[in-house]
Amino acid sequence: MLMVTMTIIHSKIPARRSTLKITVTVPPEDYQKHLEASAAALSERRTIKGFRPGHVPFDIVKREFGEMTILQEALERIISSSYYQVVTADNLAVVGAPKIEVSKVAPNNDVVYTAEVALLPLVTLADLSIIKVTSAAKPVTEEKIKETLKALRGYQAKEIIKSGQAEKTDKVVINLNLFLDNVPVDGGQATNYQVYLDEEQYIPGFNEQILGLQKGEEKRFSLTFPKAHYQKNLAGKTVEFLIKILDVYERQLPELNDEFAEKIGQKTVAKLETLIRDNLETEAKKKADEQAEIEILERLIQTSTFGDLPEIMLEAERQKMFFELKRDLERQGLSIEKYLSDCEKDEKQLHEDFKDQAEKRVKAALLFRQIAIEEHLSPDQKEIDDELSFLRKSYKDNKEYLANLKREEVRDTITMHIQNRKVMQWLKAKVLGLELIKAEHSHPHDHEPGHDH
Q1: Domain span at 131
Q2: Which end of the chain is more exposed for a tag (fewer CB within 10 A), N or C?
Q3: Residue 137 and residue 442: Cα distance in Å, rounded?
């Protein structure tokens, strides 16, 4: 029978300990089965005359290899099995792999080891009645509808090369070079770059510098980059631009009539406007809903109390954020190395930048876990199967995605997504006074097999 003693260590507040040292004593009768399994494994690696590999009697293997060799081979099994028994028997909410230190191991004797393990911190949920959040969608204005109609017409615009000056409604194609302190900016060159002069650019004032220019003309001018620009080496700095106009196009938009509406699948302009209004209202409601979720979570984090957060959880979250950023950059055709170079940082500094956000994300995860336990919001098997079926249909032509859906860790991630949706629905019902409804399927892209979220 296992003997277990537990010692609290690294505790700042006894009631909210985050690290535990467990001393486990495993008697020989409890680990005999692991000795026999390890003996079989050893016999497969060395031929023993008269026996088939893996089918050698235990006493023969013991004579050939020695008891200590078998025990050393079995040690990992003994520790793994007994540690799992201790954690499950005592309902310990542990996180990460334990730090193991073996203090006694000898044939026919107790195996004694110490496991130092991080515990999920205790969480005390805030009183939801003190959290005041409202969710109100912005009204859809006629101006917004007109802007959308203009954009739709723009998708079907005819572009005709013109010889005159560039006007506000034109498109220009340019070559572009950037200089900082008379030195070319790394990556600040572009050829055949298209600029729609009626659309806002990421550098204020850029379009105005192009207005009035004609094909073949060059121009030098300076503009100040926004302070929030992602390229930290350029953010807030005055950069010199050298542009050459390659072509100027007049953009002729189709008339706004029923014929145009029919091309977009609506019989009349009136029906098209109604569709646009409905879509904009749906989008506004979704944005308001998302903003309410953010505010609820932020205030819940601020008003709830947490025990000491284990460093292993914080570091895991920082690693996750790093790989999320790397994946997003790769989708845009950028490398993490280029991003770090532009930001003038290394990976260590980037991880430090993630510190505060990682702490918020860990706290959010702990809160969601706590609420799911207290309110019994974990998904049942049918909900999980329905979600998997939904994803399989959504990605029926993606063999790699379908294969990943079979992986256990991916199923676990999807299960956690469902649970989190249920928790958020419960929170919104409590805080916003909404009716508690079954959480609907998330968008297929919310789940990415092969990646943790």
Answers
A1: 122-156+256-308
A2: N
A3: 21
